[in-house]
Amino acid sequence: MIKRKGNPDSETLNRMDNVGDLVMGASDMIRQLLTFARKDKVKFQYFDLTPFLEEAYKLATVSISAQINTRFENNTQDLFVQANGTQLQQVLMNILNNARDALRNKKKPAIIIKVEKYKPSERFKKANPELIADTYATITIMDNGDGIPADKIDKIFEPFFTTKEVGKGTGLGLAMCYGAIQSHHGTIKVQSEVGKGTAFKIYLPICNEEFAEQSTMTTLSVTIGNGETILFVDDDQKLREAQKEALEMLGYKVIEAKNGKEAVSLFQEHQTSIDLILMNLNMPIMGGVKAAEHIRAIDNNVQIVFLTGYDKDATFEGGFLPSAEELILEKPYTMEKLNRVIQKKLLNTEG
């Protein structure tokens, strides 16, 4: 909304974009930590690893001093993998942060990241019989820091093992990296020499061309509202105010409700004019699930998009609601994503 109204200069725009990226990244990381704690299945997608890593590298290096010479080297293109982007970004950030900490006493500190395609040799296959892919994408992260002593290098992936002083590390970072890469049917290797530095090498299987085609994303034209009426239901007044203004900027009319009970009442009053309901799940007096039951008793064909800041699977456990992805939007979400979901629902209504 600030970008739309404020006419900011390019530097301010970049800073606002960075704030948005960091907020969404933090949200993804928290969601991933919750998944790690629950041991749930992680969603994988097909995408080109190289441009993804270029963006992840930019975000990860925010926490690295400008005094450290960092660079990203790409020696190949079109490395399509089946992966979870949030986990890969966590892996990159954990290893880069470790590299940064190992460079505190270096006069010319440096970190290099390389991305390459690798066809396993017979020696590699014998040493790693569990890795059966024909080709791998390798991500190498090298530093010229303190290095890891030989008697400790075999323990670095163990949970709670750390070489850092008390209060400086949990010992979970590399253990999470190792587990994440294993879940991708890959592996992670480390080479190090005290006083000369450390190199981590990650191996991820490259998917075949058939799957690579699935990852190709087409740019869709953005469609906005045309005066459709949305009933927006949320107990947070400030969020309602901001969301109402944003939705009106996108071309929709908005009716507000502060809880599920008020939403049912407003739907009874305006049901012929309401095209879509945006319903928060967790609210006092009456929550979103119960309100949806009452509203669907009035009109079973009403289109509802549920909004939640909690884990959607746990929220709907044992509930009546379908699990279609587009029905449930997890906070925080971008306005572009919300608008796409709204348009999809409105098209379903017209169809």
Characterize the structure shown.
The protein is α/β, with parallel strands linked by helices and 351 residues long. The chain has 2 domains: 175 residues, Histidine kinase-like ATPase, C-terminal domain (Heat Shock Protein 90, 2-Layer Sandwich), CATH 3.30.565.10; 122 residues, Rossmann fold, CATH 3.40.50. It contains 12 helices and 12 strands. It has a 5-stranded mixed β-sheet, covered by helices on one side. Helix 10 links the parallel strand 10 and strand 11. It is elongated. It starts with a helix and ends with a helix.
- Classify the helix fraction into a percent range: 40-55%
Please tell me the total number of domains: 2
Strand content: 15-25%
Average pLDDT rating: 80
Alpha carbon gyration radius: 24 Å
Provide the CATH top-level class of the largest domain: Alpha Beta
Number of strands: 12
Alpha-carbon distance between the termini? Answer: 32 Å
The secondary-structure element order is HHEHEEHEHEHEEHEHEHEHEHEH
Oligomerization state: single chain
Which regions contain 5 or more consecutive residues with pLDDT less than 50? 166-171, 212-222, 322-326
| CATH fold label of the largest domain | Heat Shock Protein 90
Structural class: alpha/beta
Question: In CATH, what is the homologous superfamily of the largest domain?
Answer: Histidine kinase-like ATPase, C-terminal domain
Gross CATH architecture of the largest domain: 2-Layer Sandwich
**What does the main sheet amount to?**
5 strands, mixed
Strand line-up of the largest beta sheet: 2-4-5-7-6
- The total of helices stands at 12
Morphology: elongated
